[in-house]
Structure formats: C-alpha cells, structure tokens
Amino acid sequence: MYVEVTTSSPCRYVQLVESFRDDDGCVKKRTVATLGRADQISGELDSVIDGLLKVAGREPAKLAPAIAAASLAFESSRALGNTANCW
Fold this sequence. Notes:
This protein is an alpha+beta fold. It is 18% helix and 33% strand. The chain has helices spanning 46-55, 65-70; strands at 2-8, 11-21, 27-37. A 3-stranded antiparallel sheet has the order 1-2-3, with no helix packed on it. The longest helix has 10 residues, at 46-55.
C-alpha cells in the first residue's frame, strides 16, 4: 500500500492505494480509502498514522512542534546558471 495524491479540478485528494495482481498476473491498483482533501488535512491524519504504525509494530515518532522547527535550517545554494532552456 502507498499514499497517492490525485488531482480533480482545483482540488488535490490524498488516497490510500493498494497494488495487486489480477487472475491474469497483470498489476492493478485500487483505492482503499480516500483520506480527504490535501489542503484540509493538517493534523487529522496523525491518529491514522499512529494506528498504522502500532499495527506494524513500530513506535510512533512524536516531535514537539518547537523541536521540529528548531531542527530545520535553510541554507543558500550556488547558482547553476541558466537552466530555463535545458529542454
């Protein structure tokens, strides 16, 4: 299973998708659950993620927002030149 983001008009949806093989051996995929619109699910999926980790036997990693923000750092990068006409 994997998470897929699909687009329908201006909205983006987050879906839980499963890959499987049919009777002929061809790879297919099916949507197991639509988790909601990407712009509306901020912290609502935390309980779903924690439940999936618990079922998998892994401990959920919890970081306080201040710790997560403190571990991020933005650094400048070197210019690569004119990359607009590469294609």
